Amino acid sequence: MQGSSFYAGFTRLCKGLAVILVGGYVLLQIFPSILPYVALIPSRTIPFAWNLITAGYVEQSILGVAISTVGLLLLGKWLEPLWGSKEFLKFIIVVNLLTSICVFVTAIALYYITRLENYLYTPFSGFHGVLSGFLVGIKQILPDQELSLFILKIKAKWMPTLVALISVTTSFFTMDSVSYLPTLLFGIYMSWIYLRYFQRQPETSLKGDPSDDFSFSSFFPEFLRPVLDPIASVFHWVFCGRISDSSADTRGDTLDGSPMPGSDSVDAIRRRERGARALEQRLAAGKLSAEGKLEGTSHEGAAENV
Predict the structure, then answer these.
(1) How does DSSP assign 67-108, residue by residue?
(2) Taking a C-beta distance cutoff of 8 angstroms, is the pair 20, 57 a contact?
(3) Distance of alpha carbon 82 from alpha carbon 46, whole angstroms
(4) In whole angstroms, what is the distance from residue 17 CA to residue 285 CA?
(5) What is the chain's pLDDT, residue by residue, as a tens digit (306 residues)?
(6) Could you tell me the pTM of the whole model?
């Protein structure tokens, strides 16, 4: 009964993308020689520029494809109904491409700094950059929703930070961290940039999410925010052409202090309400499905007794 509700609700788009991930892994096992043509190897990216796109959909290990497939299906079940299939696919494409570009530039820069050739010849690939971006999307829409991490219950707003912290910590004890850590961290950062400044909101037709709860410093503990907020204002100047502040006209408040339509607080409230409604509908649908299966089992048992 619980298993049926767990597997219910996977969208057609997510299932199709899962097939691509699994199929790409299987194809790589059959034809391992194609890895240099589909993975992001900085020394070969020019002229093989399509690597910037294909690398995000190629998993090199069975563990990687398992995590990516399950994560895509579970997190996509939350985000795609809220964003819509078109925006959900756009998010994946944009975040994957931007993440690959950042990884490529960083690898080249590290090579020139350290002269270590592994930065040039390491094959970077995997869907984990987009998966980490999904966690940022969950943080934005359902920040107080509790998610399970092994035996712990963690609020969604802290999941990107926690995943980044665990990944950075484990990188000190593993030899192959260079193959996944840059992709994961840039996935978090690029998804925040896209959602913060560029995603178009269907309620207002405005771009981005300027709410304080989704600021750059919101990913960090409160005692660090006074240091990080001035840094975040530089991002705001780059993408919006002005330094952010907390004045009433920047927030979009009226003279009496109430928020104007289209302001960050109103948009944040609407977004969370939409997420809460989707959560309630999903839980209700799962409950009805479970009750229906229980009732069907009871009827079958009664028929057998007769």
Answers:
(1) HHHHHHHHHHHHHHHHH-HHHHHHHHHHHHHHHHHHHHHHHH
(2) yes
(3) 38
(4) 24
(5) 444 444 557 889 999 999 999 999 999 999 999 999 999 999 998 888 999 999 999 999 999 999 999 999 999 998 999 899 999 999 999 999 999 999 999 999 999 999 999 899 999 999 999 999 999 999 999 888 877 666 677 888 899 999 999 999 988 888 778 888 999 999 999 999 999 999 987 666 678 888 888 988 888 888 877 887 777 677 667 666 554 544 334 444 433 444 434 445 555 555 555 555 555 555 455 445 545 544 554 545 544 554
(6) 0.78
C-alpha 19/C-alpha 25 separation (Å) is 10
Name the token pair of 134.
């999904």
Structure tokens at 95: 């975040």
Instruction: Determine contact, residues 88/16, Cβ cutoff 8 Å.
Output: no
Q: CB 42: neighbour CB atoms within 10 A?
A: 21
Helix (H) or strand (E) holding 2: helix 2-7
The dihedrals phi and psi of 10, each to the nearest 5 degrees, come to -70, 130
DSSP 154-212: EEGGGHHHHHHHHHHHHHTT-S-GGGTHHHHHHHHHHHHHHHHHTPBPTTT--BS---G
Please state whether 9 falls in left (phi above 0), alpha (psi between -120 and 50) or beta.
Answer: left
Q: Residue 188 in contact with residue 164, Cβ under 8 Å?
A: yes
Coil, helix or strand at residue 48: coil
Bond from prior residue into 47 cis (ω within 30 degrees of 0): yes
Q: Is 136:191 a contact under the CB 8 Å cutoff? A: yes
